[in-house]
């Protein structure tokens, strides 16, 4: 599937951005222009079932195939957040960016706790502005509004498609290219033990102190600072 894309900048270097579940390219509204200021031509996708991209069957493998179909290989930088991080890990051997950043990636979907699982995630489609604001109190108001807009066009079946993966180990065996794993503090997806394992496999691991899961919205300055040496 050819995905809808958004581009910022006209630099000679290319950066790729892959969003997480429920979001679309608009989640990168500050990151895209910031990378363009660093001389990149930045291309962000809407994964299938999200934003202006098509609908269909859903799985991480299909998300990855779409990204490979849509984005250019050999970019200088690729960043994937959450589900986008998992998607990037499944596409990186074909995309072959010079550097990859996995921002609080969905490398492990823990068994549901207190009923929180793919079904509840799907129900978040009907979240109100007050609920979004309560869950993400550090977000700018414009990001709360964008979240409402992206939820309206999101196919919640993408969340339900993750049910077979709950409890599975989705961590890459090794970095295909030089790779940074950027973690929330604390991360609900990557435990300290898993972070140590990633380090032993050859990934660089950095945490953004106090940041929630969507680091680039929760602490934009911390997000950019943690990319020092990777831009």
UniProtKB/TrEMBL annotation:
Superkingdom of source: Bacteria
Name of the protein in question: Alpha/beta hydrolase
Molecular function, one GO term: hydrolase activity
Alphabetical keyword list: Hydrolase
UniProt KW NAD keyword: no
Domain AB hydrolase-1 intervals: 16-219
A Pfam family hit: Abhydrolase_6
Transmembrane segments: none
InterPro entries xrefs: AB_hydrolase_1 (IPR000073), AB_hydrolase_fold (IPR029058)
Source organism: Streptomyces virginiae
Keyword Hydrolase: yes
